[in-house]
Amino acid sequence: MTTRISGGQHRGRSIKAPTFGGLRPTSERVRAAVFSIIGPDAVEGKRVLDLYAGTGALGIDALSRGAAWVDFVERDGRMCRAIRGLLKQLSMDESARVHTGQVRKALPRLEGDYDLVFADPPYESGELVNLLDDLEAPGLVADEATVVFEYRSNSGPIEPTGRFSHISDRKYGDTLVTIIKAGPTDAKSSLSRNI
Asked: Over pLDDT 70: what percentage of the chain?
């Protein structure tokens, strides 16, 4: 399976990943659209978290576009090895770390204070609901952070409340992308989904 980096220093470079059932990487078109919506200020010099990383395409795109650091979290060891190999090939390995394991177990071990978070859980996993609560953990998401969710469009949009505010919803085929923004940490926050 091959896709390409959609922008920045390594634009057009191929991302090759193992092919196996259930892998659904974010397309180059959707990645380019997401980075266009959030703008360069949300990426350049920022700390990024790529959850359910898969091929690592979102985090690698962020590094190509000037992110200072990316933590990748992926439970499949084959994908983690592929991401590490690609990071080394692109000389990005000094600016990233790949964590092998389930997202909910990995989150408490991460350094936190992320400025940009990508979350693209498997469509049928049901993990998005729990993830919404997990992102409220103190110190995980920085003030004014941007959070990008990717999920099945027929499941209903995410509606942020409290600390988080809605920025945009965009539909691409059967995929819905919701972008939210984090407010100050002293504000109580909750996120919900319309089902």
From this structure: 85
Q: Which residues pair with 98 in a beta bridge?
A: 72
Q: Higher-confidence residue: 193 or 31?
A: 31
Task: Name beta bridge partners: 16.
Answer: 2
Please give the domain boundaries of the chain with CATH numbers for all domains.
2-193 (3.40.50.150)
Residue from 38, 156, 93 nearest 83 by CA: 93
**Mean pLDDT taken over the chain:** 85
pLDDT at 17: 64
Number of alpha carbons in the 13 Å side-chain half-sphere of residue 137: 16
CB atoms near residue 8 (< 10 Å): 19
Write the CB contacts of 124 (distance below 8 Å, at least 6 apart in sequence). Answer: none
Give the DSSP per-residue string, the chain.
-EEE--SSTTTT-EEE----TT--PPPHHHHHHHHHHH-GGGTTT-EEEEET-TT-HHHHHHHHTT-SEEEEEES-HHHHHHHHHHHHHTT-GGGEEEEES-HHHHGGGS---EEEEEE---TTS-HHHHHHHHTTSTTTEEEEEEEEEEEEGGG--EEEETTEEEEEEEEETTEEEEEEEE--TTS--EEEE--
